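Predicting holo structure, fe (ii) ion bound.
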Amino acid sequence: MSKIRIALLGDIHANLEAFNAVMEKIKTLDVTHYVCIGDIVGYNANPKECLDMMRALNPVATVRGNHDEYVGTDQDLYGFNPSAAAAVTWTRALLNDEDRHYLATLPYSADVRIPGVPTFKIVHGTLDCPEKWGYIFRVRDAELSMENQRGFALCFFGHTHMPLFFVEKEGETQGFYFQQEVPITIEPNTKYLINVGSVGQPRDENPTAAFTIYTPDENKVELYRVEYDIQTCQQKIRDAGLPEKLAARLEIGR
Ligand SMILES: [Fe+2]
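Done. Tokens:
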């Protein structure tokens, strides 16, 4: 039997060029399962293609991101910055009712059950209040989420577009940058809260697409970064009439 290798993809944000580059890399990694951490749509110009591609991967679990929720519903966009709101409005008009219903009915969090793998949790924002779309940047934010992680050793999240991870051992929590060169080793009696990075709009000043691979047999979680055709993605944003700011931020990774 082949070894279980789980690809965790989050914050794809309708960036087809980044998603394609990630899938090219994944083809070389013997991935057996997919998990989606949410925000499939929003910001960039290929929401339909990215949504169809994600669904075709038949992920074992998918959670709802804030952009998925706002695109899937008609909630007013108070609180969204103007360029993000413009993309949500544009995406609502582009997707069909079935697509929007799919996005609007995704769960806020999920327990991911794969035979032979310890059950782990996923959430887009925070486990303490997933529908409020809080951001986990600091240890205190992580602690609040991890209180709701209970018996689960592992939780993956997204939303900040910032690959950070938090480790709780003997009652103390520490935060670290998640780097491609330094895989995380899952140790016993330790709790982990790991951001999987953003496929379609990284914000850690590294513009390359990010995703995570979890190999349970090896107790290993790895971050991957891949280059993609940023210029084509930018051109599509401009051609769609979406705000220039959304194109410009991709090349600086902010
Ligand atoms: Fe996002």
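The longest strand covers residues 209-215.
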